[in-house]
Structure formats: C-alpha cells, structure tokens
Design goal:
This protein is of the alpha/beta class. Helix content is about 25%, strand content about 25%. Helix 3 runs parallel beside helix 4 and helix 11 crosses helix 15 (about 480-490). The chain is globular and about 80 Å long.
C-alpha cells in the first residue's frame, strides 16, 4: 500500500499575542501569531490546530474585553489563518462562558474538548471528530483541558461548567474512534509531569498528565500549557510535541503512514516575515485604539520604582510589591496583603500610564479575603521562604524547584502589614520567627486570627500553598488587580511608595547574592 501523508501545523498558548509583545513597550524578536501565519503552507492533507489559551493574556485581549469590541476579532484572525480545530485552554474561560460562546460561534474551526461542558449548553464544543483528508486518510481527533482549572477559575464560572477527568475522557474518546480511523490525535491543554528526555520532574499534582494521555494509545499527542518548546519526542508508543507561548514558534508535524510502517518528523518553525496582511488589516484599527489607551497617563510616583532581578527583590524587598499590596489592602479593607511578582518584572517610571500598569501586572487576577490563624500564617510564610537556599559560604540562591524546568519566581510572595524574621540556617519549615504586626508592633500568636488579602490564583493553593486551598472566602473584591491599580493611581494622583522590607534575615551581615545569580551585581544584607 502506498504511503499517505498528513501535515499538521500546531500552535498553542498565543495569549492574545497576534503582534510581537510591543504592546508592553518591549522590543522583542518574538514574531507573534500574525508573522507565523505568513509561513503557513497547506493543502488538502494539512490540518491547522491550536491547543488553547487564545483569548486572554495581553493588553490587546484585555482591551477587547473591556471595550466591548469583542472576541469576534480574535475569531476573525483565527479564521483568516484557516484553523481547522481549536481546544479550550484554562485561560479561555477567564472572561466567562458568554464571552467564550461569542468567540466559538464566530470561529470557523471546530472546538474539541471532551472533558468540559457548560450546563446550559450554549458552548459549541465537540468531544471528537473524524476528518477524511484529500488522500483518503481518516484522522480521528479529540481534545481535553487540564482539570487543574478547577483550582484556578472563579466560582461563578465553574458553577456553569461540568469539568471531568481529562485522561478518563480521552480514553473514552479513543475507544469511540477505534476502528473508524487510520490515525488518532489527542490535543491536550496540559503538559508533562516529567521531562520525556531527561526524566526530571517538571511539575506535581494533576496539572500536567501527558504521560497518562500518551499511554492510552493515541498515535500523536499535542500538548500545551507549559509554554515549552518540544518539537517532538517518543513517549511510549505515541509521538508527542509542545510549543512555547506568545506565538514564538509553531510545530510542523509530517506523518507518513502505510500498512507496514508509520513515520513522523517534527520541526519548530519561527518567522521573521511581515504579519499576514489580511489579518494585519483586520487588527490595525483596534491596535491603534489599544496603543492610545495604553499611553493614557493616570498618575505619578514621587520617584521611579526600579525593577530588580527576582532574587534581589525577594532578598531586599520590592517597592513594586509594596505598591501592589497597598492597593490590594485598600481595596479589600484589610491590614495585611500578599502578592507575587512576574518572572520578568518591569519597573515604573515617575509618570505612569496604563501601559506601565499592564506591563507590571499582566494577569486578570481578582482578590479574595481569607482568615488565617497565627499558626497558619507561619505555615504560609514557611512555604514562601522555601524560595531561598543558603550555601555554606553565605551565598543565598534560588531553590532549584523555582527555576526548573521553567522559572516560577511568582511562587514567592511578598507580605504587607506584617514583619517577620527568617533564619536561613534552619531547615525548610523551621525558618520563620517572630511574626509581628507592622501597625502596632505586637506579636502574632499562634491562636490569633487575621484577615489577609490574596489574589485568586494564590488563594487556590497553587505554588505549594495547600493550606489555602478550600479556605472559606470572607469576601471577594470586584475588579481585577490591573483595574484596581489604575483606579488607585487615578484616585491618588501622586503616590509615595513604601520601600521597606518586611523580612529580617538572621546573620544578615554575611549573607549575599552573587552577580551571576541575579545579573545585578553583588547584593549584601
């Protein structure tokens, strides 16, 4: 029997980066989806597939949601590219099911997601599909999304959904396709718990279960969510691939099948071409509006808030974190607040525009207030300071789990309203001493209880903060953190930011952070 070929062009985790990320005022070589689109070459034996997380993640998508311009713009870009299939990503749900429904209805591609259904039946989602290619090849496809979204998403959105175990659903769909296809594909908005090549652990829990999906018997598993470039590996009997975020590259998969053998080749493809013209024309009017919106001044600081490498900020304290916590505490009506910073934190100039707000806080997290005992506060802080590793020389470094397989500096939290002492000479879990309230200097005893403002991401327990998972929410705060920051600056006009560090390190005179660790020169306690 002659060989039959199938080409797949695969993207994922675009997060609204249709253009390069200059919306943040950055200069970047990352092409963005529109430039990638200029290299898409297809025929009747080609499938164009996206692995999810398209609708949220940039000022562009934030503006679409705020302005009412709508998700139809995003759908229009995907239609011009000619996508055949998309899969739901967890962030595609962030703006609610009504917003998602508008996107999917305007989309020419078929949305596959076997483990998510909305209870009202308004989302046009399919569990599986069989596509017969021009050469007669029958391709069976299904899609699934990480179940960990149950930890992240807002309650009002989850109440509208029925989210099932993705691996079990994928197994059901594979069984339903059996005998009807020549090739089976699962598109999974999730990744690997262990690196397929080195075997090193990449994550914990139920967030990334590609190993289990590959073991089901699919021929090809296309993964997402981890923002990793993995053009192709063999995982058991399955081939698997992943792509990075923001339209940095796509994966081209070429499959050849006959009765006797099956072959696969993978290539990571990037682009320096001009944006796909029809899509550029579609987006140009909206982009012009976005640029004007981003450059709108909203206030000023008495002095600029400089950024620093993550370890320096964690070790010395961060005025940027102090600002965010002050905004959160004011909005929530609490004396204590907690926040984290991005991996690549940008600073604030003296004159602040909306662009700077979005560049510094890029996610639409909302806020909740939880009540913790003094004992729980200590446990929470002990988890925070696991971020640090102390060498015998006195050098403070970042613990490996926070930088491998990808940086997770945002799992270190900065506190506001409390001051505490940390002894890095002690083993993890026994480092935090003498927690005091900043407003009156009194010590927090183990049976005391305090209300603390957290963002919704941290309150879900992500990052090793399991003690927060399932905590009763005292109250929820309306508006995202970027919205609250914008309102705060507009309300106050000129802001003087606290630059103190709530953490006091024991033996601080001999502790230091090396230049090669931070890129910022040696920093002493």
């Amino acid at each position: 029997m002659d060989m039959k070929g199938l080409r797949i062009l695969y993207t994922a985790d675009i997060h609204g980066f249709f253009f390069p990320p200059r919306l943040y005022g950055e200069s970047s070589a990352d092409p963005g989806l529109l430039s990638l689109m200029s290299t898409f070459e297809r025929d009747g034996n080609t499938l164009l597939i996206d692995g999810g997380d398209t609708l949220q993640g940039s000022p562009f998508t934030d503006y679409l949601q705020r302005s009412g311009t709508g998700p139809e713009i995003c759908a229009g870009v995907m239609n011009l590219a000619g996508y055949d299939y998309v899969v739901l990503g967890n962030h595609d749900l962030d703006y609610g099911t009504a917003y998602l429904a508008r996107y999917l209805r305007a989309l020419g591609a078929k949305c596959l997601c076997a483990n998510i259904r909305d209870r009202k039946g308004v989302l046009p989602i399919w569990s599986r599909d069989i596509r017969r290619m021009r050469n007669g090849l029958r391709v069976g496809l299904t899609g699934i999304c990480t179940q960990k979204l149950m930890r992240w998403e807002k309650k009002e959105i989850l109440d509208e959904l029925d989210v099932r175990d993705p691996v079990a659903c994928a197994a059901e769909e594979l069984e339903a396709l059996k005998g009807k296809t020549d090739l089976s594909i699962c598109v999974y908005h999730g990744g690997f718990e262990f690196d397929p090549v080195s075997g090193k652990r990449l994550s914990r829990g139920q967030e990334n279960r590609a190993e289990a999906v590959c073991a089901l018997g699919f021929d090809l598993v296309l993964c997402a969510h981890q923002h990793r470039s993995m053009p192709g590996v063999r995982q058991g009997t399955a081939w698997a691939a992943q792509v990075p975020n923001r339209g940095r590259e796509y994966c081209r998969v070429d499959l050849s099948l006959s009765e006797a053998e099956r072959k696969a080749s993978f290539q990571a493809v990037t682009s320096q071409r001009e944006p796909f013209e029809a899509a550029r024309v579609l987006l140009a009017p909206v982009e012009e509006q976005v640029q004007a919106y981003l450059d709108r001044p909203i206030g000023r600081f008495t002095q600029p808030l400089e950024s620093a490498p993550p370890l320096v900020s964690a070790f010395r304290g961060s005025p940027i974190a102090n600002l965010i916590n002050r905004v959160q505490a004011e909005a929530a009506g609490t004396r204590i607040s907690a926040c984290s910073l991005q991996n690549d934190q940008k600073g604030f100039p003296a004159l602040v525009t909306i662009r700077e707000i979005h560049a510094t806080y890029r996610f639409p997290n909302t806020l909740v207030v939880l009540s913790l005992t003094g004992r729980e506060i200590k446990e929470y802080l002990e988890q925070c300071v696991r971020y640090f590793t102390l060498l015998e020389t006195g050098e403070v470094t970042v613990s490996r789990e926070y930088v491998w397989p990808k940086p997770h500096h945002y799992h270190y939290d900065y506190l506001y309203g409390l001051e505490y002492t940390v002894d890095l000479r002690n083993p993890p879990g026994e480092r935090v001493e003498c927690i005091c309230r900043k407003w009156d200097g009194t010590r927090v005893e183990m049976e005391d209880r305090e209300e603390i403002c957290f963002n919704s991401y941290r309150a879900s327990g992500i990052g090793g903060f399991d003690l927060l998972k399932g905590k009763k929410v005292i109250r929820e705060i309306e508006g995202t953190v970027p919205e609250l920051l914008i309102r705060f600056m507009q309300r106050h006009g000129t802001v003087d930011v606290d630059r103190t560090n709530p953490v006091r390190f024991c033996d601080h005179e001999r502790l230091f952070v090396r230049a090669q660790e931070t890129g910022a020169g040696e920093v002493r306690g």
